[in-house]
Every structure is written in structure tokens, then in C-alpha cells.
Amino acid sequence: MDWSALRVSLWLGVGTILVLLPFGIWFGRVLAYRQFRGKLLVEALVTVPLVLPPTVLGFYLLVTFGARSPLGRAFQAVVGQTLPFSFEGLLFASAIANIPFVVQPIQRGFEAIPSDVRDAAACCGLTPWQRFQRIELPLAWPSVLTAAILTFAHTLGEFGVVLMVGGNLPGETRTLSIAIYDRMQAFDDRSAGVMAATLLVVAVVTLMTTTTLSRQIGSRRA
Amino acid sequence: MPERTLAVVLRQDGPIPLDVEFSCDPGDVLAIFGPSGSGKTTILRAIAGIAQPAYGRVQSGADTWTDTTAGVSWPPHQRAVGFVFQEYALFPHLTALGNVITALGHLPRAARRSRAQELLDAVHLAEHAAKRPRALSGGERQRVALARALAREPAVLLLDEPFAAIDRAVRRRLQSEVDHLRRTLHVPMILVTHDFEDVLRLATHVLMLDRGRSVAYGPLSALMSRPDLSWLHESVGLGSVFEATVSHVDTERGLVALTFDGGTLLAPARHLAATTVVRVRIPAREVILATSAPTGLSLHNVLSGTVSAIHDDPSLEVVIVQVTVGRLMLLAEVTRDAIVTLNVKAGCHLHALIKSVSIDLLAPETNPH
What phi and psi values does residue B190 have, to the nearest 5 degrees? Predict the structure, then answer.
């Protein structure tokens, strides 16, 4: 059992949620409520990582954020690491790959709030920020939770992007799904089996937690 | 709270065409009446600031909330508006109390809960304070919405089809609560409805709307005694509306005497006490005209008056005759043939015969609970 790989996987999952959720809430809300020119294109772009093969996405990330590109140098200046072969780079790539899993459910969540309810909040004297905090976010909360869970589950299973961007550095970029592949290549079926079972347990626990939480939210509102 | 008159001018060609101009004084209820899709809700939304008219001006007392020519538009949360939405638009994740507290942002935090409780008490929902909207009935939700709208101490109260989703039995009670509000609250109230009964029971003034255009506007009784509103004739029927005082209750005969400026009418008694002021409607099609006072009829009500106007619209089957009795202007629907036979002309003296069972008493229920 590769404990450091499990740690990298879990940190990557949690980290991706933390990085992506604030952006997803802001952007999902913008897409839900604002009408602007080019919205269709933006919505298509948001969905692209969903349909693109992960290796292709990884390739473009490497090209765009390679050490020699201006964006790559900017990334290095901000983060202090190069994008390839660093945990930070992996986190960034994972965030990009997960954009559709976060933005879309959150957008649907905000869209599902009746416009009368939002108008009523304004007529109650709430400022736009108070409306967001006290009415919109609590009502969209189940979607935000769904987005977080999807992201976490998706990150645990991500293989192609991780392999392309992160390589296979133990303790730094080797995630559990990479480690499983690694062990299989080395004919270490037993280790691979243990790690696969671990991922299975994590997945089941995650889903159970989601179900319980959403039931609780549901019953509180009934 | 200072009393503020609401003055509104709205004009636009689309997306929903509008051409209206009206004002409403504190203590008055202006009913905006018209078929669905005539732009009624858009008017309320423009007053509240959640919709922008192409051209318009919304003035509450000295505050100009909207003035498109000057580029003024206060955001909705800065306008002192109480808005009861058609489907109530309660916050589903908050309790009844929480819904009301949300609108109490102008009070110090510590005072909000007790004030919200007071407001729920006032709409008789004290015991439902901890319930979420989903656990409340339609009528209860409506009253939470009302309490929430009042919480802000609004300078204008907007009611969008407040009774549309409520069954008849509960509706009467809520109508009398709204009527009670009118008399105690003293803010301009704008009531949007497509149900003429709401207009008759609650309005002091009426704005009739057809495809966004104002077709008639004025005090209820003045408007209801106009013979020329063919559009109203076709939709709900004409009939004069006025206020009368119960001057005598004859429990033995089951009748009450209603005294108005110009005479007395007898109507079947309901549980009305003497000196109660009631709203009376006499449908124009129930009024019979006679040149001499008849005898030998099972009729209680014969009013003498002079013909003050005759409206002969070729598109209508009948002619509308306006008869002035004292200060009351009564409408009667008669055939063209009758006009010729009786030789009805403006200024001639006539008797209006009204069956007492035809008189609609739109009494506010004195004890709503």
C-alpha cells in the first residue's frame, strides 16, 4: 500500500475543491443570471474539458504552461514551482479539468431558484450581497455540495491529465490511480488490489456522505 | 412614517407595451384590473424597481424612485416597497418567522425577532412561526407574504393577484384582512387583479387596463356609474357601486334598510348591524325603468330620478341609461325598443325598479375570524 500516493490523491481532491469552488460559485451564478454576448461560446468552453480526452487536455496545459512560455513563467512567478512535475502544477491542471463538474451543477442550482424569490429578497431590502449570502447560496447549496463531491470523486479517478502533467514523482505527483497502474506494470497484483479496494471504499463513503447530507437538507426544508 | 402619495407614469412599446399614468393616496386602494397579459404585473415590477420601463417616472412622496429622463433609478432594496407576489415567493429554506425577519433589516438585530413575532400575530399565524413554507396552506403562505411585505414599513404596498391561488372560503377572510389594512395602515395600496370581485370588494379607485393601455381610471363609484364602458360591459357587466349605511334591521322580514345619498333601499338581511357602512352594487341588467310608479308588485325598491345620460353603442344589444337619484348615479340596461316605447330622453323623469334580491351587498366582514 502506497500511503504517500493516497495522501497525494486526497490532498489533490480536497485542494481542487478549495481552489475551484469559489470560482465555480461565482462563475456558475454569472452564467445563471447574466445575459451577455458570447455566452453560448463561454458555456461551450466550460464544457470542453468534459469531452476532451484527458491526454489532450494535459498536452495543451503542458504547451501553454511549459517553462518557456510566458504563461508558464507567470505561473512559476506566482506559485514558485513549474507546472510540470509539481503538486501545485497538478492541482492547477486538476482544477482546469474539473471546471465543468463544478460550474454546471452550480449554474443549474442558481437557475432553479425562482426569479420571484430573488425579487422578493430585493423587495425585503436585502442588498445584492445579502441576497447572495442569505437567499441564493443557501438555496443553491445542494448543487454546490454535488459539485464538490463530483470534483472530489473525479479527481481521485483522474489518470490521463495527472500522467501528462505530473508524471509519477512519489509523494509529490504520484496519485493512487497512477500508483495502481504502476504496481500492475510491476506485476505486484496484491498492492494494486489493496489500493483499488481503498479507492472503492473512499468512493462508496463519499457517495454515502452526499446522500446523507442532501437528505438532511431536504428534510430541513420539507 | 410620513404619508406619501405614489405617482406613476410608465410608457414603453415593448417587450410588454405600457401606457399608464396614475397616482394613489395613502389609505386608498387602486385596483389595476384587466385580462391576463395586459401588463398589470409589469407595472408593479416597475414600481418596485425590479423591472425598468423604457420611459417612466415613479414618485413616492418627495422621493423619485425612477425617472428615466434624468437617469434616476433606485435599486429595489432602497425603495420602501412591500410586495406580495402572486405565488408569494416565500424563502423556502426559512421558517415563517425567518421570512419575516429577513425584511426587518432596518431594525437593530435584537429587536427583529420580537417584531417579526408581532407581525405574525397580526396575521393570526403566531402558532405557525416555526414552520417552513412547504408545511403551510395556501392561505397561510399568503399571510406570511403579507406579514413580510408589511415588515419593511413600506411607503407603498403592492399586491399581485393576492387571492388568485386561494379557494373561495379563505379568500373572503383574506379580503377583509386586506380591507382592514387599508383602513389602519394608511399607505397607498396597489392591487393587481383579473377578478372583478376583488375590485368591487377592496378598491377605492380603479385603473382598467387593456393591452397595457389605460382604458378607464378614477374612483370606483364614479367609474362604475359611467354608462360608456362597453369593454367592462362585455367582461363583467355594468352596475353602479356606492356606499350605504344600514339604517334599520328588520329581522322579522329578513330585510335591512340601506340609506344612501338619495334614498333608501331594502335588501335581504345578512348578519349586518345597524350603522354598518356597506358597499352596494346594483347590476345594470337588474334595473327596470318605468314612467310611472307601479303598484301591486312584489317589489320593495322604487327609486325616482332623472335620466342623466344615455349610451347607445351600436355594437351592444342594449342601451345603457344612467339615472340620477339624489347623488347616486344608477345604471340600467334596457332594450332599444324600450327606449322608443317609453320615450326615454336625457332629462326625463323615471322610476327605477330594483328587486331586493338583486342588490349585491359587498359588506366587509366585521369579524374576520
Answer: -110, 120
